[in-house]
Specification:
Length: about 230
């Protein structure tokens, strides 16, 4: 059963009893226990209630973003003020930040995200990257692009960059050509992350942050044809 971790108060205001029938809702007020679960368990969403334990809530958020299992797991913050809003957005790339008391629309947004993540998890659409003996499972849609600089291969996700020393772009593309396209000798892009192609500038524009990536001359026709 898909798991949601809640750090803080009992979630009577934003996870209804009926929702718990299809979710494994884990409630933890202990920072050590919460960090252990983040490190060892697959979670579809993490809710951090800052009301009673703001300091440990932010410590947990930092731990989440350093955990290989939770690279792209959505974090939702709930608080009575906006004091930590910028930090939550800029440093921890939180999915949303809600103020108490929550409205019915807020609750609906949280529940909709839960069920959306359940549906995606059911598809098992995950790519496992390996660094030494450690494995990093990342959902395909969360991989924005991959580029190779010298001997380093960098996987750019929606929340961070992952450095993979031994990843072959050619081998990766053979296995994942349905979802990715090569636009440059050292760059592979997730097709779903391309907002548009700008032929005059010979770049693709990404949905994630409007970043522009250069299209190599020998790849321009293939890139154009793939979106016709």
């Amino acid at each position: 059963m898909p798991r949601v971790l809640i750090f803080g108060q009992k979630p009577k205001d934003y996870i209804s009893p009926s929702s718990e029938e299809s979710l494994d809702v884990i409630i933890s007020k202990n920072i050590r226990e919460a960090k252990m679960r983040v490190t060892s368990e697959r979670l579809i969403m993490i809710i951090i209630d800052l009301e009673d334990n703001e300091k440990n809530g932010m410590i947990l958020a930092e731990h989440i973003r350093k955990s290989p299992l939770q690279l792209a797991t959505p974090i939702i913050f709930i608080s009575r003020n906006r004091r930590k809003f910028q930090k939550a957005i800029n440093e921890y790339h939180c999915y949303d930040y809600f103020l108490k008391p929550l409205s019915s629309q807020d609750v609906m947004k949280i529940l909709c995200l839960c069920y959306f993540r359940i549906e995606r998890d059911d598809n098992k659409n995950v790519i496992v990257f390996q660094i030494g003996t450690e494995k990093y499972p990342i959902r395909t849609d969360d991989v924005i692009y991959i580029d190779k600089l010298a001997r380093k291969t960098i996987v750019h996700t929606s929340t961070r960059e992952l450095y993979i020393p031994s990843l072959s772009l050619n081998d990766f593309l053979v296995e994942h050509s349905k979802d990715f396209i090569q636009i440059h000798r050292g760059t592979i892009v997730n097709k779903s992350q391309i907002r548009c192609i700008i032929p005059g500038k010979q770049v693709v524009l990404l949905k994630h942050n409007d970043e522009e990536l250069i299209i190599g001359r020998s790849f321009i026709d293939e890139v154009r044809n793939s979106f016709d």
